[in-house]
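Incident review: delayed structure delivery

Summary: a single-chain prediction request sat in the queue longer than the usual turnaround. Root cause was a stuck worker, restarted by the on-call engineer. No data loss occurred. The affected request and its eventual output are reproduced below so the record is complete for anyone auditing the incident later.

Affected input:
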Amino acid sequence: MTRVNAIWRHEEYRKSLRKLEAWEKDREFCRHTPEHFLDVARLTWILVLEAGMQADKELIYAAGLLHDIGRFRQYEAGIPHEEAGVQLAEEILKDCGFDQSEQEQVLELIRGHRTRQEAGSLPELFYRADKLSRNCFSCPAEEKCDWPKEKKNLEIRM
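Output delivered after worker restart:
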């Protein structure tokens, strides 16, 4: 996980994370924190193992750390955060030693994490993990949340 830790320490990543934290400090609903990023990575890895799928854990964790990092640009300029995240991630991944093929795999996960993907694919598992990471059943703001009821995790499940 040397390269994942390099992402964590990357100057642009840290700067982006600080901006995101500032934008969301008073956010009532789910925040986009390092805990969420790692929950998505860990849940994706569990889903991969349960599916008997072959995948690179380091790429999953890289995508987990990066998938919502562009959200501050959505707040600032209205750019969809998956697009902004891809833009930020391209530079960061390259700087952290990911080759072109690996970069494309991570960028695919970031790009597709907000929309349902092909069933049984790694992007679909990543999408599911992103949604499963939210504990709506214990959220004090759940009733005010604009997520559709069918997306909310109102029970503990996998």
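Verification: DSSP finds eight helices and no strands in the chain.
Action items: add queue-age alerting; document worker restart procedure.
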